Amino acid sequence: MTVQNPHDRFFRESFGRIEIARNYLEEYLPDDLRQLLDLSEMNLQDGSFVDEEMQAHQSDIIYQVRLHDGQTAYIYFLFEHKSYPDPLVIFQLLRYLVRFWERQLKEGQTLSAIIPLVIYHGERAWQTPTDFFSLLNAPEGLRPHQPDFQYHLSDFSHLSDEEIKGQIWLRVSLSVLRAIFNPHLRDELDNLITLIFQLREQRTGLEYMRTILYYLSSATGKIKRHDLQRALLQQGEQGKKLMNTITQEIFQEGMQQGMQQGMEEAMRQNIVELLQIRLQVPETTFQEQLKQIDNLDDLRLLVRRAATVDNVEQFAQALSAL
Fold it and tell me: pTM of the full predicted structure?
């Protein structure tokens, strides 16, 4: 049982909507690149290629599109939800693109063109080079002999209202992304909520509004629950209903997280007690290492090891193997 990262949830529920992804490509891709693409048919693909250890900071979505010459290409969205630029993002992108190509080869497909896009909304402006060769400590003369590509960057961290383009769905999602790390979010919350409420007459608009309000309430410390409640109540009866819905979702999420944490702690205690009873291992011997493990399957495995190993060295080996 896992609790989804709120940044990941918002990104997937936003750019997983084809109308938002398409409008973003229409508005923010460079003209020469956009003119190569036929965006009338976009197909969302299954799977993620982000490293497990990076999933707290990155999310990805990939779409299949047609080129105007009839060939197939892929649009790879990488969402950076760190609050600061990461100069190694292009190295991470290279790994993710290679994984996609490896999947194509495994499935007997020919390799397709992939257009990598990075979406960023952190507190600091992105000033990291967007080409791979700049990452290397190498003279320009070696560029033809090194892997090289570049990604298209959209830095929404410091855009003004006038610079946020597109239809209402896209403008709302980008305004929320820009706001989440904004130190002045509390002062600008009323205007943001008013913009969000323009979605209420759209088909599935109320569902997406709940996603946005959950994100605002769970992904930033810039506003408190009562700030959001006050802004919502200014929207009348519809705002009150949405506030009640969000409060219930947050409560359920907290219960789920609490249940998982409780199960983890109970398993850690079972491991310690088994080792004490069977092998007379002092309580503190593995305590710090066990605190670092929050995967329930790993903890279940260690419970079984604690119940069956012949000596403390065997348990230590099982623990270090995780």
Answer: 0.72
